[in-house]
Amino acid sequence: xxxxxxxxxxxxxxxxxxxxxxxxxxxxxxxxxxxxxxxxxxxxxxxxxxxxxxxxxxxxxxxxxxxxxxxxxxxxxxxxxxxxxxxxxxxxxxxxxxxxxxxxxxxxxxxxxxxxxxxxxxxxxxxxxxxxxxxxxxxxxxxxxxxxxxxxxxxxxxxxxxxxxxxxxxxxxxxxxxxxxxxxxxxxxxxxxxxxxxxxxxxxxxxxxxxxxxxxxxxxxxxxxxxxxxxxxxxxxxxxxxxxxxxxxxxxxxxxxxxxxxxxxxxxxxxxxxxxxxxxxxxxxxxxxxxxxxxxxxxxxxxxxxxxxxxxxxxxxxxxxxxxxxxxxxx
Length: 331
Ligand code: AMP
Ligand code: MG
Hints:
Layout: H1 7-28, H2 45-65, E1 70-73, H3 86-97, H4 105-113, E2 122-130, H5 132-137, E3 142-149, E4 152-165, E5 168-176, E6 180-184, E7 190-193, E8 207-209, H6 218-228, E9 235-236, H7 241-247, E10 253-256, H8 273-281, E11 285-287, E12 308-311, H9 316-323
Parallel strand pairs: 1-2, 8-9, 8-10
Antiparallel strand pairs: 2-3, 3-4, 4-5, 5-6, 6-7, 10-12, 11-12
Helix pairs in contact: 1-2, 2-3, 2-4, 7-8
This protein binds adenosine monophosphate (AMP) and magnesium ion.
Residues 130-131, 210, 212, 214-215, 238-239, 259, 262, 265, 268, 271 line the site of adenosine monophosphate.
């Protein structure tokens, strides 16, 4: 159980809660074309507005309570400050003002740029909207915030505004190193501890993977499923919601196999830090696809790791062994 009195706990939870509420408000206001439910995909501005709004809110809330802390976030305000994006800056300001009255466009840019820090001894890592494509499709996305200290992920806050669970839809997962992970509703009501599944037969393993085929290696994962005798079709979802699915036992395995078209791709720390802790603290195991521990000391990317394998722990060794023949020799 996490230390409920910790300041990190209170601020982190409040920050991702506010950001989730902002993102859902932006999504509700998104342009809908004539066909019911169809989005105007040409218009990327809702993503931008939600991304920047979520980052501004979270950086403001962290900066207020932890003024000395570094924040390493995905966005910066440079494009938002261009004259041609003035409407978007106005929209971001309007959405943030629902949470922090009297905010100005200058405040917004300043708060967003608090996220331009460099990884060091203690820093927060933030993906204000993970799974942008899912956000636009009205599918899964996540707001992912983690605290890294001395190379270890100490806290993970993962808001999954539309993820289904046994008590409804929309959840926030809060994990503290060595203290477990708890689930909350989007309005902050505690729903209880989260645990991985007890599936120990690889043939019954339920696999989660990216919707975007470019972010993983579908042929490798098909091969793997065949070799292990997995019959159930993989669950495809965007964002770190996949980590949440493994943590709460909806899935048993999350595989992010390196795509052969992007062999030099190295994962961004904000795409994994919060999810890594959520699965680990739910009793699962996360390594790269070769079985190496994820190394959080290499800057903004996991330079020493290739791909990611998250499981309920019981299936981890079997998965690594089944993966080995399909992987290129370790660089
Ligand atoms: P997902 O929703 O799990 O597919 O992950 C979305 C994330 O994939 C984005 O935030 C990107 O940072 C990341 N990404 C972009 N290109 C690649 C790639 N070639 N391989 C793996 N991940 C990628
Ligand atoms: Mg991301």
